[in-house]
Structures are given as C-alpha cells and as structure tokens.
Amino acid sequence: MGNMAKIAVIKDVLDVEIQEYPIPEPLDDGLVIKVEAAAICGSDQHNLTTKPAKPRTIGHEFLGKIVAMGKNANEAIHSYGGTLNIGDRIVVYPHITCGKCDVCMTYGNGVCVCDNDFMYGGGKVNTSDIKNNDPTVWPHFKGGFAEYVHIFANTYVWKVPDDMPAKIGVLLDPCAVAMRAVEQVMTSIGGLAEGYSISSRCLIIGAGPIGIMAGMILKEMGVEQLVYLDFLDEKLENAKAISGADMVINTSKLTLEQKVALVQEATCGGPNIVIGAANHPSATIEGLHMIRKLGTYVEIGAINADTPTLSNRLVFKKNVHLTSVSANTPACFNRTMRFLMRWKEIPFEKLVTHEFHTLEGLVPTAKLMANPDYLKGVLTFES
What we know:
By secondary structure, the chain is α/β, with parallel strands linked by helices. The chain has two domains: 4-173 and 328-380, Quinone Oxidoreductase, Chain A, domain 1, CATH 3.90.180.10; 185-324, Rossmann fold. It contains twelve helices and 18 strands. It has helices spanning 42-48, 73-76, 102-107, 166-169, 172-183, 209-221, 233-243, 256-266, 281-290, 312-317, 330-340, 362-366, and strands spanning 4-12, 15-22, 31-39, 61-69, 78-80, 89-92, 95-96, 118-119, 148-151, 156-159, 201-205, 225-230, 247-250, 273-276, 296-299, 321-324, 352-356, 376-380. The strands form four sheets. Strands 3, 4, 5, 6, 9, 10, 17 and 18 form an eight-stranded mixed beta sheet that branches. The longest helix is centred in the middle third of the chain and has 13 residues, at 209-221. The two termini are 20 Å apart.
C-alpha cells in the first residue's frame, strides 16, 4: 500500500516503542483493516509487565475498517454477516486454529485451545511462519495496538453496524469470555447439579469488566438474585449500576468464616451459581466454601495461578459441578455479538472507564488498571 504506519512494540518491562513499518498489501486470501479501536485485556497488562524473549506486538481485542482485500479473501475468511467489502467495519475472533491437531480434530475448527493456535497480539515470536507476533516479520501488523492489522485466512470476523460505537464493538472478546462462563452453567433443569434457571441465586467474585458482563448476561436471562463480592467499593458500585445486581458486599475486612456466613444468609443458604472472576486463587477456595450443595462453580479469573490446597470435602461432599473457561468458540462469540447489538438498551459504554487516543497512551493507561475506578481501557483513534 506504500505508506508507513505505526505499531506498538513491547521491548522490555513497561517499555513500548512506537515503530513504523510499510502498510502491507494483503495476501490473496487476506485483508487489511485500519484500526478504529483496541482494548486492553488483563493479559496485555501481564505482557507489558513481563520481559519479552524478543520484541513483540500486542493486542487481541480490536475493531477496524477494511481498506484492502485479497482476491480470495471472501472465500478464505469466515464472515458472520455475509460478503465482505472495502469499507466494512469488522471485529475479529483473535484466534486462528490449525484444524489438524487433536483438539481441532476432536472439537472442530476455532476452539482456541488448539495446540498450534495463532493469536493476534499473542505470544508467538519464534516461528518461521509469518503468522507470529514479531513486528519485523512481514506483514508486520499482527496485533491490535497498531494503526493497521493484516487479517489472515481462516479468521472469523463479524460485521459491525455503522452506528455502533467502536468502543462497544471492541468489547466482543471479553464479553464472549463472560458469555462462555454463563453458558457453562446451563445444565439440564431438574437434574442434579442444576445450573441456571430463573430461580438461580448467583454469586460473582470480582467486580472487574468480565465479572460485570457475566452479571449483565445473567440478569438479562432473569435469574432470581445476583450478588457481587469485591474488596473495593468503587468497583462494587460500578457493578451494581451497570449489571443491576441485587446486592454487593465489600469483603476486604471480613474473615473467611464471616464471608461465608454473610453470603449464605444473603442467598438463603448459598448461591446455586458461583463465577470466580477475581483473578486470585484464594477466591476459588472462598467460592467453594460459599456455594450451595449441588451448585455450579465456574472459574474464569485465575487462569495462570495455582490454587492453594483444595480440600476434597469442598467439592465432593457438596457434589459441586466445578468447571472453568479457557476454551471458547466462534459460535459463542456470535451469540455475544448478538448481545452487543442491544447496545442502545444495555449500558455497555459504562464499562469503558478510560479512553485514550494515541498508541503512546497504552502504557500510561495500563498503569492505571489497579485503580479503584478502572474497568476497561480502550484506545479509540480520532478520525
């Protein structure tokens, strides 16, 4: 395409350099988008605060407008919403799966725990395949914190309506994590270890953006009660205002015994559903102490942490259905996109508490993630 464009490159701990590379022509089976928005994920913060093996791109939550297309792009890219054209706005499923490993052969294309998964803005840099996150390797633009992104074949994408704000459309990925967590509790009504029903009493531990979105989904589904636990009043207030929670509890000064007693009293004997979104392994133990017999526990926060010693009594005596969220699918993302399409009636915009407008704002905004008023930071390029 001839011109140069900018990309954020992690070089060291909290050291991001804004580099320039030529905007690539798309491969015959790919396309190029001009980025409108990119959101900071908790994993991005981890990557920013961890020394990389070599300089790398970042960002897997992004949305943009198609500016160039290869001749076979419509045959090679999976588009929800029909034929793609120059000028269409799209948001992506950030994983490209190989289709050949045991996971892909067993569960189908698109399940993001593929053994040979490529993730836009993910961690692959030491590979000869051009699908990696080394910015020096053409087509350079392979992460969302950039002015452009090259979209490869076998990517799943969704068309975004012209009137949907970019900062809402870019929430597809984190909202899909919340959606997957909720879908994990949809066991058969009337069976043992019953999960969701309209009589469900639900507890969410951790009032961050994914926890809040899980609550938004549960409330829309009509659960009887929604309760949040967190250490910070500001986050709890946001959770109540955005999700419509029935009760929020600050547990920062309570013992485990006090927490369990308070929650079980508030939920008439304990929640049927507990979703762990605190990103701390001790919260898993606490949630299992609180849950009702035959309840369902879903962990979505502490994916990279080891849980402290887990007493068998916590799980097996109560016959708890214990599961987690790491695998997701394009089908779940599609259901989530349909949920986001209700943005005019559901206050998704309140999740974006920190908006910035240049790549240079990435590190300063990421440094604010521990602040009590922070939920989601989103880069929106000013047109």
